[in-house]
Write a structure and sequence with these properties.
heterodimer; A: 220 residues; alpha+beta; 58% helix; B: 758 residues; mainly alpha; two-stranded antiparallel sheet; 26 helices; 7% strand
């Protein structure tokens, strides 16, 4: 009979390979704590919380750390005028980050293990602040409570499904297979195209990757 | 395209509908790709209870019927209702913060989540892609997917699905081969034709109310297009053991092996629920329905030392995994260098740790939020009763104690980026010198290749006895060419011995060629080759790689790269002195002998293809020489002419001295057979122990018809080949294409480095 079991073992090994490790969790947690310390020191009216896949531990190795910022004060105004509050708080946070960078570069703060790079403000439908800290991408949005609740829901689902975190493991696998195929395909496209031509040249039938090369042509 | 949360909702629906049968992430992926590649995104809203049909004005009545059918077929009970309800409760706790759309209903006391979500569906904002957020009924998670991207989405899923099916099919073929070698009866092997991929097996499996006794597959209208249902016919020789990875009719039967004993153990390993354990009647039939959802976790992944990255995975994830592995940024957040991963690999794979690593902390974040709110309310004078709050605060404190973050450990500190590559200057110099020497050698080699005398005249070797000055000159030239070739071979051998040095230089300079990938690949190749015919395949691989490299215009000097990679491929792994007991020792005494062989054939084949490519300018080139090793003192030289029917390939002459140990005489014959794939008949003239054993070989392949009507599409070839050979060639194509990709990546990265340096 066909040996599916070994294949599944291989896939399990692969999932173990890409799944979060203790070290990566620690790295992200430290970045979060660093941000929390910053916010607690410099702007006390804000509260910063982790969300996203880094919180539910279903992030891929290059996954971002998602944080949300919630204002502690004036909640009714927030709800009534979300846009203004959003921009104000994010601008506040932006200035905090730049301050931190300047402090570190001038040598005022020592023993700082965190390096902030590429701070940018993304003017999308939901405004967000993006930067890289110690090579981990950090996205900070404002007041996306539903994100946390959704993660809570995912945790519950995972608990109901059980079976050694089967839900999360499958999620990781699906994410890998789907998402990364749409990103950064330049090198891959080259390789695929070359394969495809070679295979045509040699007249091989039953080529394993199918029409992947053609798909890449379409994508480009 | 889709956000990660949207994907998790899609997966959640799959668990909701098919969750009882899902045991492994691979099954989930298979199901995901199969279900969503045909999903009608525009007409159905995906909710946790299944797709809901949306009737708009632009939909015709027939479409309404099929849409309703689809809805009915895939609707299911919501097993995650309790989770949704707790989420709603959280919302009512957090009401100050949110603009949750269902809040009004909640405040009115409508706590039934199912009703709430169904009612709010009428207010659902329709877009091209419609996915309902299970925590917010009017939130469309497919909001940002434009209509144009939907075909791309389903197409990418289709490709992924096809890749998966191909893998399963190949597994099936391997199984066939195993059976064949077991029975030692080759006549029973079916004449192999190019297989149709198993499309839409799944639609049968999805057909819900199946009768397990009735094994006959029924076509269904699930996908809406019955013409795509290509069910395997009964004439198909593979029919009895069709490897459909359908989890559906009965999941445990998947692992049913030839013997019933194995089947039972397979089931046990998947269904050891407490109820079964209490049940002393162990003779349950193998077709029992799969265990209930409350089964304790059993499929804790077994850790395999060699199988972290197998080529099957490369096909399942053709883009992503290659991106990860080849670009070397696997865990770039953790590791200063990909090499560190090797050290981590041995330590990290305990399953308990992985379980811990997957524990999320969404709850603690929520509690933080609640905590902040409650604190604020405590500060402010509030009208609500304080008891509840204190209870809540206590709860939160307790949970914080549990989920309190560990104090930062100094050993696991994230290293600062400047210290990533500390010693970068010295090894680069070493590497550069090695590279340039290789390259210069290659250029000289190329020149000398071109200087090889006209082989037409060499064909008439018997006339060489006459003291013609021209033939003397030819002889001299030939000697010279042979010496040069030997020199090249020596040099390449020495470079292959220096692979350790080069690899270590890769380690320290952080060259993007990932060492771990190489190790895995070498391991895998070795395993594969031991399964198949080891030396035979080595020869063929070499010829394939050489040919591919010579044909590719991307590599100006293919020799050094290919030889280098080949030496990696063939040389035995260094730190594996304690050999695995179960595996047979390959023929030919290990890596070094085979390495020589490979280099022989590589040099030979690259020279031939080079000459044949320059055939356009020199019309009198009809034959090229494949030169083996001829020791100086030897006289007896065998010639093997290979007559080609292809016009662009010249007749090959293989000259072999006796000093070459091809392992076996039949091995060499096999080599010719396999290596002469574009040649319809091959002849070899051979004397062994004074006897003439010349023979005409019918090679494995013969191209009977090759039409270019369809623009040279490769499916137009009609190949007659043996089953065995197809397996071999497929694996070879995979290996060589992988090497090609490696090669391209290294080359491109080097080019990039030069550009950045400039």
């Amino acid at each position: 009979m066909v040996d599916f079991q070994s294949l599944e073992e291989e896939v399990s090994g692969f999932v173990q390979l890409i799944q979060p490790t203790k070290q990566s969790n620690d790295a992200r947690r430290k970045v979060y704590e660093y941000f929390k310390g910053l916010v607690d020191q410099r702007c006390k009216e804000l509260l910063i919380l982790p969300t996203g896949s880094s919180c539910s531990r279903t992030y891929l190795p290059d996954g971002d750390l998602d944080l949300i910022v919630v204002s502690r004060n004036s909640q009714s105004e927030e709800v009534s005028q979300p846009q203004q509050q959003q921009l104000l708080s994010l601008g506040r946070l932006f200035s905090v980050l730049t301050e931190e960078i300047s402090l570190k570069e001038n040598g005022i703060v020592e023993n700082n293990r965190f390096t902030i790079r590429n701070v940018e403000f993304v003017n999308a439908r939901t405004k967000l602040l993006h930067c890289r800290v110690n090579n981990i991408g950090v996205d900070i949005t404002f007041h996306q409570i539903s994100g946390i609740v959704a993660l809570y829901f995912i945790e519950k689902v995972n608990k109901i499904v059980g079976r050694a975190n089967l839900f999360k493991r499958s999620l990781l696998l699906v994410k890998v297979s789907n998402f990364l195929s749409s990103r950064r395909i330049s090198t891959d496209a080259l390789v695929e195209l070359v394969f495809e031509r070679k295979c045509d040249l040699w007249g091989w039938a039953g080529y394993p990757w199918g029409e992947g090369g053609h798909a890449f042509v379409l994508c480009r | 395209m889709l956000s990660s949360y949207a994907v998790s909702v899609l997966v959640t629906y799959l668990f909701n509908k098919f969750g009882k049968d899902l045991q492994h992430p691979l099954q989930v992926l298979h199901l995901f790709l199969h279900f969503y590649q045909f999903y009608p995104w525009e007409t159905h809203v995906l909710t946790l209870e299944g797709p809901k049909f949306i009737q708009t004005s632009s939909v015709s009545s027939s479409q309404v019927n099929t849409g309703r059918e689809y809805e009915k077929q895939f609707s299911c009970d919501n097993r995650f209702l309790s989770a949704q309800e707790t989420v709603l409760r959280k919302y009512s706790e957090l009401q100050v913060y949110t603009t949750f759309s269902g809040l009004e209903g909640l405040m009115k006391g409508q706590s039934d989540a199912k009703r709430l979500f169904q009612d709010m569906l009428s207010k659902f904002p329709l877009r091209a892609c419609n996915i309902q957020d299970p925590t917010d009924p009017t939130n469309n998670l497919g909001y940002s997917v434009p209509r144009n991207n939907l075909p791309v989405l389903s197409r990418s899923m289709m490709i992924g699905y096809q890749a998966m099916e191909n893998v399963f099919f190949r597994l099936h073929q391997v199984d066939l081969l195993r059976q064949q070698s077991f029975h030692q009866d080759r006549r029973k092997v079916p004449q192999f034709t190019i297989p149709q991929p198993f499309t839409n097996q799944f639609s049968v499996a999805l057909n819900g109310k199946k009768s397990q006794k009735n094994q006959e597959p029924r076509p269904s209208s699930v996908t809406g297009d019955p013409s795509t249902c290509l069910l395997p016919s009964h004439n198909n020789p593979f029919q009895p053991i069709v490897p459909v990875y359908s989890i559906f009719p009965s999941a445990p039967n998947l692992y049913s092996n030839k013997s019933d004993q194995v089947r039972e153990t397979g089931i046990k390993s998947y269904s050891r629920s407490p109820s079964v354990d209490n049940d002393t009647n162990s003779s349950t039939p193998p077709s029992t329905p799969s265990p209930p959802l409350t089964v304790p976790p059993l499929t804790v992944p077994r850790t395999h030392q060699d199988s972290h990255l197998s080529p099957f995975l490369f096909e399942l994830f053709p883009n992503s995994l290659r991106k990860y592995v080849l670009s070397g940024n696997l865990r770039s957040d953790l590791l200063d260098h990909p090499l560190q991963f090797i050290q981590h690999k041995s330590t990290r794979v305990s399953s308990e740790e992985s379980m811990v690593a997957l524990e999320g902390d969404a709850e603690s974040a929520l509690n933080d939020l609640l905590h902040a709110q409650i604190q604020k309310e405590v500060e402010l004078p509030s009208t609500e009763s304080k008891e509840v709050k204190t209870v809540l605060v206590n709860e939160i404190k307790a949970s914080e104690d549990i989920t309190s973050l560990a104090p930062p450990d100094s050993r696991h500190e994230v290293a600062s980026p400047p210290s990533i590559y500390p010693q970068i200057s010295e090894p680069i110099a070493i590497k550069d010198s090695g590279l340039t020497s290789e390259l210069s050698l290659d250029r000289s080699g190329v020149k000398q290749d071109v200087d090889i005398p006209n082989p037409v005249k060499l064909k008439n070797r018997k006339k060489r006895s006459s003291t013609d000055p021209a033939t003397m000159k030819n002889l001299l030239l030939q000697r010279e060419a042979q010496q040069n070739l030997n020199k090249i071979k020596e040099n390449t051998l020495t470079t292959s011995r220096e692979t350790d040095v080069q690899l270590s230089s890769w380690e320290t300079t952080g060259e993007p060629l990932n060492r771990r990938f190489l190790e895995e690949l070498c391991d895998w190749v070795e395993r594969q080759l031991r399964v198949y015919y080891y030396p035979l395949l080595i020869c063929f691989v070499a010829s394939m790689i050489a040919a591919v490299l010579c044909f590719s215009s991307l590599t100006p000097s293919p020799h050094s790269q290919s030889l280098h990679l080949l030496s990696l491929l063939v040389s035995p792994p260094k730190n594996k002195s304690n050999g695995q007991p179960g595996e047979p020792i390959p023929q030919g005494g290990g890596g070094n002998v085979l390495l020589e062989e490979v280099i022989h054939s590589l040099i030979a084949l690259s020279s031939t293809s080079r000459l044949s490519s320059t055939q356009a300018s020199e019309e009198d080139v009809e034959a090229t020489r494949i030169i083996g090793e001829v020791k100086p003192g030897e006289e007896e030289v065998n010639e093997v002419p290979l007559k080609s029917t292809e016009t662009h390939l010249a007749t090959h002459w293989v000259q072999v001295g006796d000093s070459i140990t091809f392992g076996d005489f039949t091995l060499f014959a096999d080599y010719i057979e396999t290596g002469s794939y574009p040649i319809s008949t091959a002849q070899y003239l051979w004397t062994k122990d004074g006897r003439n054993v010349s023979k005409t070989i019918q090679p494995f392949f013969s191209i009977e018809e090759s039409s270019f009507v369809d623009g040279g599409h490769y499916r137009c070839y009609k190949l007659l080949s043996s089953h065995q050979m197809l397996l071999l060639t497929e694996s070879i194509v995979r290996i060589s294409s992988k090497f090609l990709s490696l090669l391209l990546l290294t080359l491109s990265s080097r080019l990039d480095d030069r550009e950045t340096a400039d």
